[in-house]
Amino acid sequence: MPHRKSQLPESLLDIQRAIEEYARGYGLDFWETSFEVLDYKRMQEVAAFGGFPVRYPHWRFGMEFDHLSKSHIYGLSQIYEMVINNNPAYAYLLEGNSMVDQKMVMAHVLGHVDFFKNNYYFSKTNRQMLDNMANHATRIRRHIERHGLDKVEGFIDVCLSLDNLIDPMSPFIVRHEAAQHDEKEQPPVEVPRLRAKSYMEKFINPPEYMSEQRRKLQEEREKPKRNPPEPERDVLLFLLQNAPLESWERDVLDIVRDEAYYFAPQRQTKILNEGWAAYWHSKLMTQKILDASELIDYADHNAGVLAAAPGQFNPYKVGISLLRYVEERWDKGRFGKEWSECDDYDTRRTWDKQLGLGRKKIFEVRKLYNDLTFIDEFFTEDFCYENEFFSFARNASSGNYEIDAREFKKVKSKLLYQLTNFGEPFMLVEDSNYDNRGELLIRHRHEGVDLHLDHSRATLTSLHRVWHRPICLHTVVEGKSRQLRFDGTDHTERAL
Amino acid sequence: MALRIDPSHNRFRDIVRGKIKQNLRKYISNGEWLGRKGKDVVSIPVPQIEMPRFHFGDQGQGGVGQGSGKVGDSLGPAEPGEEGKGKAGSEAGNHVLEVELSIQELAEILGEELALPRILPKGKERLITQKDRYIGIRRVGPESLRHFKRTFRQALRRQIMMGNYDPLRPVVVPTREDKRYRSWRTTPMPQSNAVMIFIMDVSGSMGDEQKEIVRIASFWIDTWLRSQYEGLESRFIIHDAAARAVDRDTFFRTRESGGTMISSAYKLCAKMIDDEFPPSEWNIYPFQFSDGDNWSADDTTTCVELLKKEILPKVNLFCYGQVESPYGSGQFVGDLRTAFADNPNVVTTEMENKDDIADSIRAFLGKGK
């Protein structure tokens, strides 16, 4: 396999080729992957840019860099692996890491690249994102040159405060052109009439009433259609298409939206993706790559990656355990009607049909699942107890986090709740001409938890900056429907 | 090495220090990590700016974890504002971590944030001593300052790179380019003497909240002036109807009840200056904090007289900070303003709550006197 002008030293390149060969032997299917060795400073920089060598200038990358370098200086954490979902894939190795670490990172990265390439949720992402990010940077720099840093950065801030208003599933929705039947001749307005004998007609269906009704229906039909016709989750797209923006502003918003969509699948598949990569680095390292002298170091570092401090949820750990659990079940035939109906403890414990379908099953999981569906389907009662999961909550009196339940149902529902829409509220744009005054109506689909009101008000300010007309937010506060409104100068609130 | 991220990083730091983009200030949260420096556990300040978004309010709802423990077992304190929802990936988790900046650095930041001019050394025959500190390494310098270890390390590195290092015969010969020298920086240290006299009203109307404000304000003033002068003294006076000099600890802890005679404190302050701190040799900074509820108008008149005759001619600056309290009438600040409207060496401020402390300090020290 030809490697594009790789900067990798020959020794590492040989190792990469060997690891790739082993990985292919197991059925992993990945793009060409180009590794680059970076010193810690460059590594932190790239990590601050979300893995990309070039991004547009913005303070939040500086903040990320600040945190990374502080945590490096004080030895709190270090960046082990970083890989970009791109074809060819790019990944980074930290200069000065021991050989065993480099091997582990390479094996881990190949797991990620295989996942990027094959997982359904990544299928619509831009695979030339490296170039795309650089283009975004150039475009933003051009806007900065023309309009000034403060102005452009200020608008980026506004967009960032809205960047979760996307619909991660929208790339998968096939939309039919709705506009067609509008053009067609519409049948004349027909007022439904009650059945009546002819001599009773004008009493049962009085002509005045009928014509009144006809007029109303006609009016109804001629009323301008609502925009959007259906409530829309992709608020950013709606704003792009409808908000009165200057062209540079539209471009900035477009860039922010584009990047948000690019990163969304990574947020949707954190557990599965990390679990998958951990599964493969562990398999490859222990079965193929490790030299006997490296065993202890490997075990130490691997344990570090998979450690779960009390109260913390380590996606690597949960992902790999659950994948191994699925593999075991399908290897032993622990699925299907027979299995689920069996309630004899001993039979279940020794259940082994020796089907050996495990590997096939986990490859299927990596292709078709995301975190939500993965947990929903495979996080079983047995798994929950075996792995000592608990849910925790804040105890209001002590201010501490406390374990509040170990019941399977509670643990699972909390987990699913946090994974649904990334644990964020569903916000929909409902009407762009609310109250017939060109106000933008945003509805929060309330599902039991209230919004953070201060931040919501601040976000309304950001929306106003884009929409230039008053913004209304319909939500539920402490069980009552409320409207929050920002008209450009004042925030008001009223019951609905 | 210049990094692409540097402009963004500087931008972020300027925002945190309040130099630019004040509109983001309200979104800055000051997190903290605990780290290690040698054997000491230090606290690393980790400022963070979180743009507001639509998100759930009740974030204290916890999550799911793994491990042993019974229902009801504590997992440690929930951090307000941090909500335990750490970003996954390469970052450190939410380590609950104390201040690693030295007081000197803090004072520098304070100086930048509050835009304080440096306080000028006073006195005629004050020496300015210079202090050299070795702070780094450079490629040129006198041989007497050669850094042997660095030099040889550099030589070894070069030889390895050039491939003429033989581990079996480890001879390392530094060339001129390999040589490394210690470099130093000379810092002038003003030797002026300064004394701060903190006066606090501890009468019944000063509650804990008011004292907290005074404590914070005094701490920062103390810190700033200490960074400017070597050999700085602090004196503390508390008063209700009578005044007494106390140590620092008592100053911050005492709660008394009783009436308020500000003049008593002024008398004590004037006596202290006469006895201990001749104005020809000392920079004198009295800082007075009160809720402004003096006992009687007569006493206020006495105060103004005392200030005018006994105190103001001897001090660099007189600062009065009035803390709002639910009981006090708070007239005193007005009285002072009327009496010393045209005297630039009297600074008065009012503090309603903790947010006003910074403004108040800026007013006190911004004059650079």
Description:
The complex is a heterodimer of chains A (496) and B (369). Chain A is of the alpha+beta class and 496 residues long. Helix content of chain A is 52%, strand content 12%. Chain A has 4 domains: 110 residues, no CATH class; 78 residues, no CATH class; 114 residues, no CATH class; 73 residues, no CATH class. A 5-stranded mixed sheet of chain A has the order 6-7-8-9-10, covered by helices on one side. Chain B is α/β, with parallel strands linked by helices and 369 residues long. About 6% of the residues of chain B have low confidence. Chain B is extended. Chain B is built from 9 helices and 12 strands. At the A-B interface, helix 2, helix 3, helix 6, helix 14 and strand 4 of A face helix 1, strand 1, strand 2, strand 3 and strand 4 of B. Strand 5 of chain A pairs antiparallel with strand 4 of chain B.
How many DSSP helices of chain B?
Answer: 9
Distance between the termini of chain B: 41 Å
Helix coverage percent of residues of chain A? 40-55%
Q: And the CATH topology of the domain at 191-365 in chain B?
A: Rossmann fold
